[in-house]
Specification:
Blueprint (H helix, E strand, L loop, with lengths): L3 E5 L2 H4 L7 E18 L10 E19 L4 H12 L5 E10 L4 E9 L12 H10 L1 E2 L2 E2 H14 L5 H12 L3
């Protein structure tokens, strides 16, 4: 099989963990980035869950697409499954994206399963900040995850006003 694209919207932007041959900003319609996953492993525990990003239905999402060589297809997909499907809160999907150069293509990504126990329904920013401030998992503090994502999005010229407000509130001690 040939080359393929992977669409990242959170930690896959700043910590892809796989080899790629090209990257471009991209937009995905019909899905939006949100802190809609209770993290029981990487940024929290079952007793004190953190919050990580997922693609939830509706809206659109700007992110980063990375093109993977066809010869690396199987190992990259296996790596992504081991990384993203730890608790099966995400569903693996092939979705249509529009690359920054205007080209439309399909990309592999991971969307939240709203029927899963870890799905976090929308919350007020103050609630999000309170959870993120306290949570920590095997990959570190939840706040670092959110801050790294915002820093990476800004470096790409992508604004996420909700995440930016959360980082500001974390820095100022609000919530």
């Amino acid at each position: 099989m040939g080359d393929f694209w992977v669409f990242g919207y959170g930690s896959l932007i700043w910590r892809p963990g796989f080899d790629f041959i090209e990257e471009q900003k991209a937009r995905l319609h019909g899905w939006r980035r949100g802190l809609c996953v209770h993290s029981w492993v990487h940024r929290g525990t079952k007793e004190a869950p953190g919050l990580v990003l997922g693609l939830d239905r509706g809206g659109s999402c700007a992110g980063l697409a990375r093109k993977v060589s066809g010869e690396k297809r199987e190992p990259v997909i296996q790596y992504l499954r081991e990384r993203e499907l730890v608790t099966n809160v995400y569903l693996e999907k092939w979705v249509p994206i529009r690359l920054a150069n205007g080209e439309k293509t399909q990309a592999l990504t991971y969307v939240v399963d709203q029927a899963h126990d870890q799905y976090a329904k929308p919350m007020a920013v103050e609630q999000l900040v309170e959870i993120i401030r306290k949570a920590q998992g095997k990959s570190g503090e939840n706040r670092d995850y959110v801050c790294n994502t915002v820093t990476s999005l800004k470096a790409l010229g992508i604004r996420d006003h909700v995440l930016e407000r959360i980082v500001k509130d974390l820095d100022t001690g609000k919530a």
